[in-house]
Amino acid sequence: DVQEFLLYDFFAPEGHVNEDVFAYSNSAGSERALVLYHNRFATARGWIKGSVAYSVKVEEGERPLVRQNLGQGLKLHNDSAFFCIFRDHLTGLEYIRNSKELWDQGLYAELGAYKCHVFLDWHEVQDNEWHQYAHLADYLGGRGVPSIQEALREVFLQPVHYPFKETSRNAS
Q: First vs last Cα of the chain: how many Å apart?
């Protein structure tokens, strides 16, 4: 289905649109996907922030151009208490990003020559009173991991594991 399809501009750090990167999202029901493809023998890095303009029918004969930001396009909460977890289909790595940051700043990505990302399995989680997801997102700093849930356990067991590692290291 293409009713929810959006094409996005990919902004290089210098501020111009990199026309060599194709970025689009689509969704059906609760399933969402974001695809990025770099169509050049070079390295590309930058931000996906907003869609390209498209027309919508509001009244007979009227078709104004509108844009959506990435958060709108992926139907995310515009709330800093929510975090998105998604998986790159090609690498199998999972990522976590703050939903509000995706609304406000977009998604940063780096792509090698003729490389792509296919981000699937988008779901949002609400952070808890201990801000575990916020801590994990800060700790990972945008890096992907095989499992967000496993990384969450490891990060919060570090205070327990560290003294044991030090004890065994000193005993050797």
A: 61
Cβ atoms of 17 and 10 within 8 Å: the answer is yes
Q: Residue 93 has which token pair?
A: 């790595």
Residues paired with residue 145 on neighbouring β-strands, in sequence order: 94
State whether residue 92 is helix, strand or coil.
coil
Length of the chain: 172
d(CA 76, CA 34): 13
10-20 residue pLDDT tens = 999 999 999 99
Q: Are the beta carbons of 36 and 13 closer than 8 angstroms? A: no
Which DSSP category does 53 fall into? P
Place of tokens 């208490």: 81
Consecutive H or E run containing 111? strand 107-111
pLDDT at 56: 85
CA-derived radius of gyration, the chain: 19
Higher pLDDT, 169 or 15: 15
pLDDT the model gives residue 164: 53
Q: Which residues pair with 129 in a beta bridge?
A: none
- Asked if the model's pLDDT at residue 161 lies above 90, the reply is no
